[in-house]
Please model this.
Amino acid sequence: MPRKSVIRVACLDVGRLFHSRPARSVEFLLDPRWDVILVQNTYRDLVENKAFRGEWPVRHWGPMTNHFKRGNVREQVGIAICSRLPIMSLSAHAFVRHLMPVGDLDGVKLDAYGCADTDDLQLVRQTESRLVLFAEVIKDDAIIKVATVHGSWRPGGKVDDSLRADVVRMIDIVKKQGDLVVAGNFSAARGYEVYDTFLRSGWHDCLPVVYDNTLDYEGRGKAGPPLAVDGIYTTGGSLKVTGVELHWGVSDHCGITFEVNKE
Model:
């Protein structure tokens, strides 16, 4: 009987560390239980920090923009895949703007959380790319492809034609990569139009239905409706996601952990 290969994955949007729990975010990401972490909205200095590099020898980084942190210090912010397992291949693809050069997020007003003000959405789209990162992880005799993404955002979850075009480009990129698991902040709540587009494209939703919210409102300092905007999907039929858990109190989004099995 063939041996089953399993990798343990953690996924977290660190909210550009503007929330009240940056230390908890880092603690969660450095937890030795995970084989792979998928990170969204992180500054480059976190991924390249000495302690972080020591825990995560393989780091696949994709910058979305040159952002101003508090204090008007500029630094790249983006998404990452980090692994304690060997990697067969890495790739990155843009579905909004381009991979290089990295744009400067200049002239955008910031809200109380340090994020772009909703009035400046058009300027954000001109200066911030959106990416999908892929990595083929080697475990035992198997190769398991994982991906992460930070989806395009619209105020209030409003869907417009430009967002629909972003989603189609992202789905087309993922489709060309074969069987994989993709997890991250999709900026699209379960049960709404973009989510339905994912399902029609053949993606399988692996977040258990009992989890109807992934936004940690306590970390945001305000209340809000249940919205499962972070998620896990598989494409094709060779991978199975099990053991999904949500972790609260680590960011302004919940952390998600799960196992990926390949028979």
